[in-house]
Amino acid sequence: MVIIFLFFGYSKWFNYEAQSLIPLISHGPLIFWLYPVFGIRGAGRCLGTSEWLFCVLLFSGFWNKKLGVLGALGACFAFISTISIIPFLPDAWAKSAGGFPAMTDMVAFLIKDIGLLALCLYLLRQDLIRVLRSTRSSFPSFAAHVRQQSEVPHGY
How many CA atoms lie within 13 A of 47 on its CB side? Predict the structure, then answer.
């Protein structure tokens, strides 16, 4: 996932990618607002920056579990945003092949994000388990410390 976000985020900084994203972003129910707010190039840069942020957070998750959770949450949102475009994309299904389920190139490009979302949900689950285990393991030592303190006789 780190490599995917690194390379996809990098490509968003170039005009060729900004132009190719126009039909996708303009039909995305969760990301359509990027064009009125940032413009075409700014929307690409915003997406690229957020993808690099998710990349760094996911990578940092090797050492800091909470950063990994933030990266996985961001990655999940990114893929939910792109998957949500599919139902709203005009000419998404090849009419020459009878329509659904014969997808056009745009849908084929987006459909991969279902698998990437599943992977990010798995990463999120694993990071949450790691965070919960670390908080549980620190609690017993704290409880033992409190118990030890309470065993000291009063008056000393």
Answer: 29
First to last CA, the chain: 58
* Residue bearing tokens 């475009």: 85
> What would the two tokens of residue 118 be?
């599943």
The pLDDT value recorded for residue 153 is 54
Cα–Cα dist 92/147, whole Å: 64
> What is the CB neighbour count within 10 angstroms for residue 48?
20
CA distances from 156 to 147, 150, 153 (A): 17, 12, 7
Q: Yes or no: say if 107 and 89 are a contact pair by the CB < 8 Å rule.
A: yes
CA dihedral 77, 65, 124, 83 (to 10 degrees): 20
Sign of CA dihedral 48, 36, 31, 107: negative
pTM beyond 0.90: the answer is: no
